[in-house]
Write a structure and sequence with these properties.
Bacterial polysaccharide co-polymerase-like, four-stranded antiparallel β-sheet, alpha+beta, single chain, 6 strands, 465 residues
Length: 465
């Protein structure tokens, strides 16, 4: 038998892209098949979407409104160190100007803006706001720590890295309270910055203030000692009193010498009982009493004893002058020190005001008019769309479940699991479990009450008809 050789034909090789086109065509057919199936069963999907729309409407209007109030602070003036200032100057020569923030991070030098943000987020600021607006009662909380956490959640504090502007946004159900808390942040920040200033001028001002208090006490004590000494010794100015007393003593001494000379001349002519002699003798006695008074003592009535007059005299002036000069010098020194410290204190206050970062409010927090939450239209639309999507997935899943072969092992396993779970539900007969028995009793009583109420409603309807 002769075999004829067949000439092999040209082998067909699949062209590139035919498989992709087949997959794309089958995927498109599957999508349109599902869409056609859903369109045929659009009634339950429409009802589910309507129910979702109503549920979204109730949900949207049951959520309380929230309002946002925002205030902005100007970037504070930075008091940079020399090293940071040098790096900042170098950074201006770079095109991007990004060396200054990097240098600040590397050197650990933070701007006053970062300091402000840290103070605003501190517990001290939050506690003052909680006490001022009674936020524990507003939020319905018992402890201040819990109110602090809620306030942190309702407050957003951000610093723009480029401009340095600090934004404080407060969210609250009351628009007035939201604006009040936002503005109160700025007030408390200004108070704390003034109280907690750590600049060198602040430390100098505090030192001078304490030193001035001590010098003032010393000055008051020295002035009191000086006034008591002057009052006790009846002295006002030792130098002037000494000069006046010396001049007065010299005058009295001259008059006394002249009177004694005149007395000798009269005694050579007249007797002691003469009127003129007796008048000169009386004048001489008066001058001697004045001299004794200037000397600090006065002759007694018997002519021998002396009586201390209690007034400063030439004899006591040297001792009084030393004490007087010492007290006077103390007063002058304390006055000079107090005056110098007062000048330095005023200069330190001015320097402190320059170095203390000032809080400048760019935009105050105004009363918000429009709510920030909830977006009611979005909530209603999402609820309706979610209900329609869930119903569509259920319809497709039910159709595919029915298309599975009843003898399929996966379907049989799923049915077995469903039956086991259904047997443990409250409506199933008790299976020996105490928990299931209790839930079955509750379910039975609930259904009995519901059935009795339905029957009563039906009877009332029939009687009305």
């Amino acid at each position: 038998m002769t075999q004829t050789a067949t000439k092999p034909g040209p082998q067909l090789t699949p062209q590139k892209g035919q498989g992709d086109l087949f997959v794309e065509s089958s995927l498109k057919d599957s999508i349109f098949a599902h869409l056609t199936f859903l369109w045929d069963r659009r009634r339950p999907i429409e009802r589910a979407g309507l129910v979702g729309l109503m549920a979204g409407l109730l949900l949207a209007f049951s959520i309380p409104k929230r309002y946002e109030s925002t205030t902005q602070l100007m970037p504070p003036d930075n008091q940079s160190s020399s090293g940071l200032a040098m790096l900042a100057a170098l950074s201006t020569k770079t095109p991007a100007g990004g060396l200054a923030p990097l240098a600040g991070d590397l050197l650990g030098v933070k701007s006053s803006g970062a300091l402000f943000v840290g103070i605003l987020r501190s517990a001290t600021v939050e506690d003052r706001l909680i006490d001022r607006f009674n936020l524990c009662q507003v939020y319905g909380l018992r402890y201040q720590e819990d109110a602090r956490k809620v306030l942190e959640q309702k407050t957003s504090i951000n610093e723009d890295r480029k401009s340095g502007i600090i934004s404080i946004t407060v969210t609250d159900h009351d628009p007035k309270r939201a604006a009040g808390i936002a503005n109160a942040y700025v007030e408390v920040l200004n108070q704390l910055v003034s109280q907690l200033s750590t600049s060198s001028a602040h430390r100098e001002r505090v030192f001078l203030e304490e030193r001035l208090a001590g010098v003032k006490r010393d000055l008051d004590q020295a002035a009191q000692d000086f006034s008591q000494f002057a009052s006790k010794n009846r002295t006002v100015d030792i130098k002037e009193e000494a000069r006046a007393m010396l001049q007065g003593a010299a005058t009295i001494e001259g008059q006394l010498i002249a009177a004694e000379s005149e007395l000798k001349g009269l005694q050579s002519i007249y007797t002691d009982s003469n009127v003129r002699v007796r008048a000169v003798q009386a004048r001489i006695a008066e001058l001697r009493q004045q001299m004794a008074r200037v000397g600090g003592s006065q002759p007694g009535k018997d002519g021998s004893a002396t009586v201390d007059l209690g007034e400063p005299s030439l004899r006591t002036l040297p001792l009084l002058g030393v004490t007087y000069a010492d007290l006077y010098r103390r007063v002058q020194i304390q006055e000079a020190v107090f005056e110098a410290l007062t000048q330095q204190y005023e200069l330190a206050k001015v320097q402190e005001a320059k170095e203390t970062p000032s809080v400048k409010q760019l935009d105050p927090a105004n009363l918000p008019v429009h709510k920030s939450f909830p977006p009611r239209l979005l909530i209603i639309f999402c609820c309706a769309l979610f209900a329609a999507a869930v119903t569509s997935a259920y319809v497709i899943g039910e159709q595919r479940w029915r298309a599975i072969d009843p003898t399929d092992s996966g379907k049989l396993f799923a049915q077995q699991v469903f039956q086991s779970v259904n047997a443990a539900m409250p409506w199933a007969p008790p299976n020996g479990s105490a928990i299931q028995l209790w839930t079955n009793r509750v379910w039975t009583k609930f259904m009995a009450k519901k059935k009795s109420s339905d029957e009563a409603r039906d009877d009332s309807t029939l009687s009305q008809n």
